[in-house]
Design goal:
10% helix, Immunoglobulin-like, mainly beta
Amino acid sequence: MSTIVSFVLVLGLSTNLFAKDHCSLVVKAVDSEGREVEADVVVTERDGRRIERENRPGGVKFCDLGITPITVTVGSPECNQVVVRNVPLRWGETRIVSVIYDDRPCLVDPPPVAACQFLFRFIDTQHNFVKGVSLKTQTPYEEVHKADDFGRLLMKIPAGQQLLGMAAANGYGPAEVRVPCVTNNRKVEQYITLTKSGR
């Protein structure tokens, strides 16, 4: 009888030890052909705790997690980042998550800025688009540009130049538009708010 009790106790202890020592999560970052790629992998627990590691052959392990769902983020926020939310975890089991991450565009250095592309979206104070907007530019050249029926206007200007102009529409006061063409402004989408006039 004592031998059976001892065996049960040992079995229970070994099961408990296994549960404590298991690795909670393995994340593998692969390309579309299943080849592993270099990428930063971040795991965020529900309480806000973040663990960041770099992907490696066989995947990266996160062994000290709890039992509530976590978020897995692969790659840089600047290029093709992948986020997998609410990944379930279970005590005593290793969850394996494979993420397809296309890092090829991230490995190419961007060309020098030759021109900037600006999309202006003209809205009122209620965030409704404004029809019939004209933008009269002073630099880099003097011209009048018309927005479409949804208050959108796409413009391109050379690198190193600044777009400076005045936007106007019937029933609205004018609004200045000023955006330089520099590296950080290679492609800009910007809301311009027009305020209704008192008339």
